[in-house]
Write a structure and sequence with these properties.
alpha/beta, Uracil-DNA Glycosylase, subunit E, 253 residues, 8 helices, 4-stranded antiparallel beta sheet, 4-stranded parallel beta sheet
C-alpha cells in the first residue's frame, strides 16, 4: 500500500452508503506536490461501499477491498491473568488498548486512571515498577484479566471491537480454580456487556450465586468522568467488599 494512503475506520453501516469498508485520505504532500511548499491538510476521499471490489484514486487501483479490511481490522490477543496468593476480587476489562499491547502491560496508557486509582485505594504504589505494582495487587487480594482473549478492532476504543470476532477468556475455569474470589468488578460498561453476552450464560449456577458482580466507571481516558468521581465509585465498591468479608467475626459482647 502506498505510504501516503491512509485508512481510517468508520462504523459498519452509514446512512449514505450502506455497508462500508473505510474512509480514505491522501496527504497530497507525498503524491507529487512541490515538496518545498507546506504540507496541505489531509484530503478526505469518498466513503467506500463494501460492494466495490477495489479502491481507486484517479483511476489507479491501489488495493482491493479485502486488502483494505486486512489493514484496517487488527486481530488482537489479550494477556494472561495477573493472579496469585488468595485473590478476593477479580477486575476484568474488555481488551487492552494499543499502548498496553505494545508495552505488554495492563493499563499502560499514561492517562488511564487504573494505576492512580489503585494507589489512591492503597492497593499498590503508583511510582514504582510494573512488576512491583502487580505484586502489590496480588498481595492486596486483587486479580486482573480481560473478558476477551482475542478480537478484531480498528483502534483502541471498545466501541471499535468488531462484534462476532470476540473470543472470550475462560473466566469460568479461573473462578473454579480460585474459589477465594468473592467479587468480579467490571472496568467499564463494555467489559460487563461482553461478559453478559459471551460468558455469563455458561457460568455454573453456583458461581452466579456465590459471587458479587459490580460494574464500575471505566478507567480509560476515553471515559470522560473526573478522576474524583471514578475514585468515589471504586472506593465505594472496595468498602462494600470489606464490610461483607465472610471471615470477619463480630466482637463478643
Amino acid at each position: 500500500m502506498p505510504s501516503w494512503l491512509r485508512l481510517a475506520p468508520i462504523p459498519e453501516t452509514h446512512p449514505e452508503s450502506g455497508p462500508l469498508c473505510t474512509v480514505l485520505s491522501v496527504d497530497s504532500s507525498e503524491t507529487g506536490a512541490n515538496p518545498t511548499r507546506p504540507a496541505p491538510a489531509t484530503r478526505r476521499l469518498s466513503i467506500l461501499d463494501a460492494r466495490r471490489e477495489e479502491i481507486r484514486i484517479d483511476g489507479r487501483c491501489l488495493l482491493t477491498i479485502e486488502e483494505a479490511r486486512t489493514i484496517v481490522l487488527m486481530t488482537l490477543s489479550s494477556f494472561a491473568p495477573i493472579i496469585g496468593g488468595r485473590p478476593e476480587i477479580l477486575i476484568v476489562g474488555s481488551m487492552p488498548g494499543k499502548v498496553s499491547l505494545e508495552a505488554e502491560e495492563y493499563y499502560a496508557h499514561p492517562r488511564n486512571a487504573f494505576w492512580p486509582l489503585m494507589a489512591a485505594l492503597d492497593l499498590t504504589v503508583k511510582e514504582t515498577s510494573y512488576g512491583q505494582r502487580t505484586s502489590m495487587l496480588i498481595e492486596s487480594g486483587i486479580a486482573l484479566w480481560d473478558v476477551l482473549a482475542r478480537c478484531e478492532r480498528t483502534d483502541s476504543l471498545d466501541a471499535s471491537i468488531v462484534k462476532g470476532s470476540e473470543i472470550p477468556n475462560d473466566i469460568s475455569a479461573l473462578l473454579s480454580q480460585w474459589p477465594s474470589i468473592r467479587s468480579v468488578w467490571f472496568n467499564g460498561a463494555t467489559a460487563e456487556a461482553v461478559f453478559d453476552r459471551l460468558i455469563r450464560p455458561h457460568l455454573p449456577l453456583e458461581s452466579l450465586r456465590r459471587l458479587s458482580w459490580v460494574r464500575l466507571p471505566s478507567t480509560s481516558p476515553a471515559h470522560a468522568l473526573a478522576f474524583e468521581h471514578k475514585l468515589s465509585a471504586w472506593r465505594g465498591a472496595l468498602d462494600v467488599h470489606r464490610r461483607t468479608d465472610p471471615s470477619a467475626t463480630s466482637p463478643e459482647s
